[in-house]
Every structure is written in structure tokens, then in C-alpha cells.
Amino acid sequence: MSSTTMTSPYSIPTTLDEWTLTASLADYASKLIDNVYNSNVLLKLLKENKKIIDGGNSIVVQLLKEEQNDGGFYLGADTLNTAQGNYITHCEYKWQNAYEPIVIHRDEERQNSGSEHKIIDLAASKTMSSEKAIAKRLEQALSTPVGAANNLIDIDTLVDTGTLGSIAGGTYTFWQATETTSGAFATQGLSDMTTATYAVSGSASDELPTIYLTNKTIFQKFEQTRLPLERIQNKDLTANAGFTNLTFKGIPVTYGNYIGSGKLYGLNLNYTYLTVDSATDMAMTEFRTPVNQTIKVAYILFRGNLVTDNRRRNFKLQSIT
């Protein structure tokens, strides 16, 4: 009895065009992560302090809920304390998935057939479009609350006093950021920035914000208060990407594309970071063909979330005019 071989709709590429598409996608994948994370200020900043985790049901972060004070000074044969209080707790965050398709229709494939370079150029153009789309999608969702972002935490939610992850900020004061209702930036903006900076810092050189992030409108207002005292410069985190920033107390001030109206954040990125699944950090799937469509589709996949293990080291000014 002869056997019949069934062909899967998600089979290994068999034609020259399919092999070319798969090979070009694999070549592009090595550049994709840097391209996405360098595409805008917010992702660039988070890339500098990104944490990679090897999967799991959730993201669990250990944190100190209060300072330890169980030691002391001793002399000679004094008895030392052998007890240590429970100062550590944990916060659990949910994973969030995002994707962007790369779709090539059969008509497009046939229009570019007969030349390997045409297929490669077609795949590159499609991939570049998807790359820009997922970068914009993540920037929007990380900047301000977006309904379609599901469980992806944005900066405005993180720098707040309400529930974050598995801990209720309203119940535990150690899990509250500093919020300040500001006003006209020209008259009180710098004063509010100074007060909030001192509120979240440990000392003159300890636990200061590492970046001030706002929108273009407020950045321009800040610029008007600083010039000619400070010149526009590229330094620290933003230098390599060429992002414009000023400084306040020696700390970069810059702006994002989707930061909410009237908002300015003082972020300590030593405690605020993007956690990403090791197998899904802008991962690219192979091109495959569904059973009921004359297309080939691949996906760019992201799995991660914005988390913190020291929320009170961040502040937010709001209602700035």
C-alpha cells in the first residue's frame, strides 16, 4: 500500500521565492532589535536599562519595603543581635504581548518574481514598515494609558499612588510615587521640579532622578527658562541617538512623542526598567501560508512590561500650563 504525503499549510519553504523570503527575514532579524529600540526617545532610554527574563508565568520583582536597622556598634564581648526583620516583599507584574504582521500577497510576490533582489527588496520594505509600526505602538502604550495596551504599564500609571502590579499604593505608602499639581511653568515650573527632585532623592548625590521626561510643549517652556544659561546638548543616554536635551541640576531633560498633556516626569531608571522575555524580544517568525488565503505572513513579537522595584524614587508634575 502506498502512502500519501500530506502537505501542511505551514510547511518548510519549497520554492526559490520562499527560501529567499525566509533568508532575508533571518538576515534582517539581527538588526531589528536595535532599529526598534533606537527609533524614539522613550524606547532608547528603556533599552539602556532593559532586563531579560527567561519566560515564566509572571514577572516577579523583589523589593525593600523599609530600611533595615538591626545592627549597631559593639565593644569587646558585647552580645550582638542575631535577628533580622522582614524588610523584603515582592511585586508581581503580568506579561504583555504585542505583535505586528509582515504580509506579502501572492499578487505582490508574482509581480516581483524572477529576481531574487526584487523579493528581498519587497520583504525589506514590508519588514521596515512593520518595524516602525511596532515601535510606535510600544511608545504610545508606554507613554500614556492606552485601552488596547491591555496589561502594558505606562509611565503615567507607574509614577502614581494607586495600584501597580500586585501592590496597592493606597494601602502601602512605600509604594507611592510623588505627585504634584503644578501650574504655569514660567512662574512655578522650575520651583516644582526642584521640590519634587528633593522629595524623591536620598541626598545631594544619592537616588536622584536620572532623566526628566516631558512633552514637546513643556520642553519648549523649559528651554525658554534656561537659555542662555544652558546650551542645547547631546549627552549621556541620548547622545548616541542624537536626541536633543537640556539639563536640570546636571540631569538630562528631554521629551517624548506621546507624553500626556501637562505632564513632566522625574524618573530614576536605576529602579524603573523594561523587562522582556528572552525568547520574545522583537522576535521574528518565519513566513507561513494560511490554508484559506493566498498570502505569506510573518510576525514581529514582543513580550514584556514596564516595571519598578522602587516606585517612590519617581515623581510626576501634572496640570502644567
Quick summary of this structure?
With 321 residues, the chain is α/β, with parallel strands linked by helices. It is built from seven helices and twelve strands. The protein has one domain.
Structural account:
This protein starts with 15 loop residues before the first helix and ends with a strand. Strand 7 (246-248) and strand 8 (251-255) form a beta hairpin. The protein contains seven helices and twelve strands. Strands 5-12-9-6-8-7 form a six-stranded mixed β-sheet. Strands 1-10-11-4 form a four-stranded mixed β-sheet. It has one domain (16-63, 91-318). The chain has helices at 16-37, 41-47, 106-111, 116-143, 155-158, 185-200, 216-226, and strands spanning 51-53, 59-64, 88-93, 96-105, 178-181, 211-214, 246-248, 251-255, 264-267, 272-284, 295-308, 315-318. It has 321 residues and is an alpha/beta fold. It is 29% helix and 24% strand. The longest helix is centred in the middle third of the chain and has 28 residues, at 116-143.
Helix content: 25-40%
What is the total number of structural domains?
A: 1
Which strand order do you get reading across the main beta sheet?
Answer: 5-12-9-6-8-7
Question: Major sheet, described briefly?
Answer: 6 strands, mixed
Extended strand count: 12
- Element order, helices and strands? HHEEEEHHHEHEHEEEEEE
Low-pLDDT runs of 5+ residues are: 1-14, 237-241
Radius of gyration: 25 Å
- First-last Cα distance: 82 Å
The helix count comes to: 7
Outline: globular
Whole-number mean pLDDT:
84
β-sheet strand percentage: 15-25%
Please identify the structural class as seen in this structure.
alpha/beta
